[in-house]
Automatic annotation (TrEMBL):
<keyword id="KW-1133">Transmembrane helix</keyword>
<feature type="transmembrane region" description="Helical">
    <location>
        <begin position="7"/>
        <end position="28"/>
    </location>
</feature>
<feature type="coiled-coil region">
    <location>
        <begin position="267"/>
        <end position="294"/>
    </location>
</feature>
<feature type="domain" description="SCP">
    <location>
        <begin position="67"/>
        <end position="169"/>
    </location>
</feature>
<dbReference type="InterPro" id="IPR035940">
    <property type="entry name" value="CAP_sf"/>
</dbReference>
<keyword id="KW-0812">Transmembrane</keyword>
<keyword id="KW-0175">Coiled coil</keyword>
<dbReference type="Pfam" id="PF00188">
    <property type="entry name" value="CAP"/>
</dbReference>
<dbReference type="InterPro" id="IPR014044">
    <property type="entry name" value="CAP_dom"/>
</dbReference>
<keyword id="KW-0472">Membrane</keyword>
<protein>
    <recommendedName>
        <fullName>SCP domain-containing protein</fullName>
    </recommendedName>
</protein>
Length: 308
């Protein structure tokens, strides 16, 4: 499942100099993708009770059970399943737990599901499933044939998504059946070993974005102050001009002109500071863009990998 996060930062900067207004726009727009994979448990067919007979096998060899399983897959032009030792351990744990706690279900009395079991055993799966069987099976073929005769269990055996399997068989006392066989197949397809995007890069991007936003706030404040100073300067100069027009006396007009000049110099200083900060912001935005491209390339590779 792909999760796209859109980060859009737009800053409007208005520069006012000597009564003239120009607008400068800086836009940073980037999409970040982060992918997580939903694990899938596909095969949990119902209970399979085998025959209760005196002809039960003395041994049920997991290797031969696998051979028969793969024979039926080959008949359907499917690839053979390979034994995974972690899944074998999970199958053994399930068998032992069912005998110990006398239950025959996919979910244990304590609520442990097959997916919980294989995960806890250390199998990082993309897809998993489980077949169970209980009964006095004559041999390995008899066991696998019983599974193949059941639609749900057959679907697990012939599931093209699975690539690995763990099989375990046990003979012990179960309820009123006396000594009987329990057999477990744990199917799986491992999660690809994909290299995750570098979270440090994303953290650095977010840190720099915070710095950028702080710079943007300072820039806007300076331009707002410069705009205010310029407006006041224009008013003072206008007042001085009006006084001079009326009196032709520069001494009366000069204080207004001087104050207007001081205000304009303050506005120019604020504008210069804003331009310096804008240069820093522009440089920072290029760094963010470069790191974003690097991060998104890693995300694309990760997304492609986990879809395998």
């Amino acid at each position: 499942m792909e999760l796209n996060k859109k980060i859009l930062l737009t800053i409007l900067i208005v520069i006012i100099l000597g009564g003239f207004c120009t607008a400068s726009y800086f836009v940073y727009k980037k999409y970040f993708s982060k992918t997580s994979t939903s694990k899938i448990t596909t095969g949990l067919p119902g209970q399979l009770f085998g025959p209760k007979t005196t002809e039960k096998a003395k041994t049920l060899d997991p290797i031969k059970v696998l051979d028969w399983t793969n024979k039926y897959r080959a008949d359907e032009n499917l690839l053979a399943l390979k034994t995974n030792t972690v899944l074998v351990t999970a199958a053994q744990k399930k068998t032992d737990d069912m005998f110990t706690n006398q239950y025959f279900e996919h979910v244990s009395p304590t609520g442990v599901s097959p997916s919980d079991l294989v995960s806890a055993t250390g199998y990082n799966y993309k897809t998993t499933g489980e077949n169970l069987a209980l009964g006095d099976f004559k041999d390995e073929k008899d066991l696998v044939d019983a599974w193949m005769a059941s639609p749900g269990h057959r679907a697990n055996i012939l599931n093209n998504e699975y690539t690995e399997i763990g099989i375990y068989t046990g003979l012990d006392t179960f309820e009123n059946r006396g000594k009987t066989w329990l057999a477990v197949q744990e199917f799986g397809k491992p999660l690809p070993n994909c290299k995750s995007p570098n979270s440090n890069i994303l953290q650095d991007i977010n840190d720099k974005k915070n710095i950028y936003e702080s710079l943007a706030s300072q820039i806007n404040a300076l331009y707002a102050e410069a705009s205010n100073m310029n407006a006041q300067a224009n008013d003072k100069i206008k007042q001085g001009n009006e006084i001079y027009t009326q009196t032709e006396d520069k001494t009366q007009a000069q204080p207004y002109w001087d104050e207007g000049t001081t205000l304009r110099e303050t506005a120019d200083a604020d504008t210069a500071k804003a331009k310096d900060l804008q240069a820093q912001a522009d440089s920072l935005s290029k760094e963010i863009q470069t790191e974003s491209d690097t991060y998104n390339t890693q995300v694309d590779k990760y997304n492609t990998c986990i879809k395998q």
